[in-house]
Design brief:
mainly alpha; 103 residues
Length: 103
C-alpha cells in the first residue's frame, strides 16, 4: 500500500514539474487558432486536401488547425492531460511520439 502511495506522489510531483511546458504546448495550439481567427480562418487552406499535391502540406499542419472555439477548447483538456503524462517518460519520448502522431 505504501508503494502505491509513493508512486502516486511521484506522479503528482512529475505532473507539477511538467505543467509549465505542458501549458506552453497548449498555448501554441491556442496561438495558432487565434491567428487563424484573425486571418478569417484562412489558415484552413493548410488542411488536408485529398488527391492534390498541395494537400500533402496538410499532413503536418492539420493537427494545429481547429474549426471553432469549442473544438479547440475540448481538445485542450485531453491535450494538457496527455502531454503531461507523456512528459513523465522524458522530453525525447514526447518529441518522438508527437512527430509520429503528427505524421
Amino acid at each position: 500500500m505504501d508503494d502505491w502511495i509513493n508512486q502516486l506522489s511521484q506522479i503528482a510531483l512529475a505532473s507539477k514539474n511538467n505543467a509549465p511546458f505542458t501549458l506552453y504546448v497548449v498555448a501554441i495550439f491556442w496561438g495558432v487558432h487565434i491567428v487563424n481567427m484573425l486571418l478569417g480562418m484562412r489558415l484552413n487552406i493548410l488542411g488536408i486536401h485529398p488527391r492534390t499535391p498541395f494537400g500533402l502540406i496538410g499532413i503536418p499542419c492539420s493537427p494545429f488547425l481547429h474549426g471553432n472555439f469549442e473544438h479547440i477548447f475540448f481538445n485542450s483538456v485531453p491535450l494538457f492531460i496527455l502531454v503531461n503524462l507523456m512528459l513523465m517518460f522524458g522530453l525525447h519520448t514526447f518529441y518522438v511520439v508527437s512527430i509520429g502522431i503528427i505524421l
